[in-house]
Amino acid sequence: MENTETKTSVRNERLAFIVERCLESQAAYKLFDMLASISDLEPDAKVEYMGLVRESGAYSDEEIDAIERLISSGAARYFKVVIDQVREEQVQREIEDMLV
Fold first, then answer.
1. How many angstroms from the chain centroid is the CA of residue 69?
2. How far apart are CA 58 and CA 56, in angstroms?
3. DSSP helix/strand/coil, 40
4. Who is most buried in 38, 70, 71, 75, counting CB within 10 A?
5. Long-range CB contacts (< 8 A, 24+ apart) of 56-59?
6. Three-state SS for 59?
7. What three-state secondary structure class fits 58?
8. Which helix (DSSP H) or strand (DSSP E) does residue 5 occupy?
9. Against a cut of 0.85, is the pTM above it?
């Protein structure tokens, strides 16, 4: 049980780190936005996109594998949703603070 709690805690910390980075960096946010959009494509379009990424030579094999996992697993969409939720909560808090 303790091992499961530790893994969950580590995952939550990683997610919080990713969200924080994306809220600080417009480029990081745009990356997850783009990857989330690609993850919504039909399977053939995803394969075609990944082929173009591989051919570009812009990424290492490890980076390509990570991009592919984010797209195929739906993690990119999940991260985008969480980032948007946190951003919306921050905006709401800022509005409430201005009204007080």
1. 11
2. 5
3. coil
4. 71
5. none
6. coil
7. coil
8. helix 2-24
9. no
Could you say which DSSP state residue 42 is in?
-
Per the listing, tokens 């812009």 go with: 58
Q: Tell me if 80 sits within 8 A of 32, measured CB to CB.
A: yes
pLDDT at 2: 62
Cα–Cα distance for residue pair 35/42, rounded to 1 Å: 13
- 91 residue type, one letter: V
Per-residue pLDDT reduced to its tens digit, 32-58: 899 999 999 999 999 999 999 999 999
CA distances from 45 to 34, 37, 81 (A): 14, 11, 22
Sign of the dihedral defined by the CA atoms of residues 11, 27, 33, 94, in that order: positive
Helix 61-73, helix 26-39: angle, nearest 10: 60
